[in-house]
Design goal:
Layout (H helix, E strand, L loop, with lengths): L4 E4 L3 H12 L4 E5 L22 E4 L6 H11 L3 H8 L1 E2 L4 E4 L1 H14 L3 E5 L10 E4 L7 H11 L4 E7 L2 E3 L9 E2 L9 H4 L2 E6 L1 H13 L20 H7 L26 E7 L6 E4 L8 H8 L10 E3 L2 E7 L2 H4 L5 E2 L2 E6 L9 H19 L12 H12 L27 H22 L12
Parallel strand pairs: 1-2, 1-7, 2-6, 7-17
Antiparallel strand pairs: 3-5, 4-5, 8-15, 9-13, 9-14, 10-11, 11-12, 12-13, 16-17
Helix pairs in contact: 1-11, 2-11, 2-13
């Protein structure tokens, strides 16, 4: 075929959409403004660059909705998941990756695909002709955001997403810290020791909270308001909500035993997760922040074990833009006012690497089906992908719409068979049903042509 699918944005969603459409036999032009036009959060011009955490979160496909989403993406031959698996790092039951190797691999595979053309430069207007997917993510350029607002007649919503700092491993004091995954989770010793833990006494914790609250913070620009996504709150915002909030969140001490002093229970624990394959970099788990750089260095060095820490990257904060999708998108992820344009990824109001990539996967398949003249419905709402699409295209209340991670609360209720009423049984019932429905969708809704595709 000669008609091409154009995709704007080479992040998680755009990369996955390009791969899925090309694997179905549709020529793709992937537009990415980086590195010609940068953002404050990105460092490279590579596709699928991970700018926040290096974790895809839980890989448990029986008890966790995120793990189920992993399963669905693998079943669909997803580029993001297969590449993540090749560059995975020990993370105690989560799927974490070497971020630089991961994005470099995604970039190489997309550029090597015979049906994918990559083009640099910024696109500033909504295209009026052709088939397009806009997957520009939370940092959509100002010009394109203005064009979207002009078309939709509605103000884009925004919240602030914060980035956690990264520490050089050699600067962590291992005479104070120890290696252990919470509850010793993992099948191998490497998995069971995937995290570095820094313990705090009550006095140290109280001093840390005082410093957090008093620290200099990033100022907002005029007209901006702090609409944070609750799954990614800056730690100082959590501390301001209550002095014990962090101790029941990212600093909870449960499931951990101090290898240096097993008889003493820590009042709070700061965890660090490996950020690269060499094990030279660790990110501070859950420590997204909007503190100014000088304040970050001072406050984080109050953490026992990090008193001499050197930082490869300090935390930051950026404006996150997304559509009011329930009013703007149809179930096929098309802009109702211009159905030749689809949206995918975080700009649609999903939150997280995995959710963004999954929406790219679906958008790429649906766009390819349309170009190939095939009638392919969205995934069933009993699946993780289908539940997310249903949420952003109609289930969510438009007047209070906020970004959402995948969770079992988005799924149609299920009556567990055989008296399976406990939470574990109920979650397993959700995942069993979803896997059956998704497999059926893949089998009967395939868009791949007979001679298309290369193995993922």
């Amino acid at each position: 075929m000669t008609e091409k699918l154009h995709i704007i944005g080479g992040g998680m969603a755009g990369s996955e959409a390009a791969w899925q459409a090309a694997e179905a036999g549709v020529p793709v032009v992937l537009h990415e403004m980086r590195p010609q036009v940068g953002t404050f959060a990105h460092r490279t011009g590579d596709f699928a660059e991970m700018v926040c955490s290096n974790s895809f979160r839980s890989d448990d496909d029986e008890q966790n909705a995120v793990g189920l989403l992993h399963w669905e993406m693998r079943a669909a031959g997803g580029l993001i998941m297969t590449t993540a698996d090749r560059h995975s790092l020990p993370a105690g039951g989560a799927l974490a990756v070497d971020r630089d190797a991961f994005s470099a691999d995604v970039t190489a595979r997309l550029r090597a695909h015979p049906l994918i053309e990559t083009v640099g430069g910024e696109i500033t207007e909504l295209p009026r002709e052709g088939h397009w997917i806009i997957a520009t993510g939370p940092l959509t350029s100002g010009a394109l955001a203005e064009a979207i607002r002009a078309e939709t007649g509605a103000d884009a919503l925004a919240f602030f997403d914060a980035i956690a700092p990264i520490v050089y491993a050699e600067s962590i004091d291992m005479d104070v810290a120890w290696r252990q995954s919470r509850y010793d989770k993992g099948e191998t010793e490497e998995e069971r020791t995937a995290y570095i833990n820094c313990p705090m006494t009550r006095e140290q914790y109280e001093t840390f909270i005082d410093a957090l609250i008093a620290a200099d913070k990033t100022e907002f620009r005029e007209g901006e308001t702090a609409k944070y996504f609750d799954g990614c709150l800056p730690i100082e915002v959590m501390a301001e909500r209550g002095r014990e909030t962090l101790r029941f969140g990212p600093m909870k001490p449960v499931g951990l035993t101090n290898a240096h002093d097993p008889a003493v229970k820590a009042y709070a624990v700061v965890q660090l997760r490996r950020d690269n394959a060499l094990g030279t970099l660790y990110n501070i788990v859950g420590f997204q922040t909007k503190m100014k750089y000088a304040a970050q260095t001072e406050v984080f060095r109050l953490i026992p074990g990090l008193q001499d820490a050197r930082f490869a990257r300090l935390g930051g904060i950026h404006r996150n833009t997304f559509l009011n999708s329930p009013t703007l998108l149809d179930p096929w992820m098309r802009l109702r006012s211009r159905p030749n344009i689809r949206f995918a990824g975080q700009v649609t109001g999903v939150e997280g690497y995995v959710e963004s990539a999954a929406m790219g996967l679906v958008a790429g398949r649906l766009a390819a089906a349309e170009l190939l003249g095939r009638d392919v419905p969205p995934p069933p709402r009993e699946t993780a992908m289908g539940a997310l699409i249903a949420h952003i295209t109609g289930d969510a209340e438009a007047t209070t719409f906020q970004p959402m991670n995948v969770n079992f609360g988005l799924f149609p209720p299920i009556e567990a068979k055989g008296g399976r009423r406990g939470r574990k049984d109920r979650y397993r019932a959700y995942t069993d049903r979803a896997k059956e429905a998704f497999s059926h969708w893949l089998q009967h809704g395939s868009v791949a042509s007979a001679d298309a595709g290369t193995a993922a």
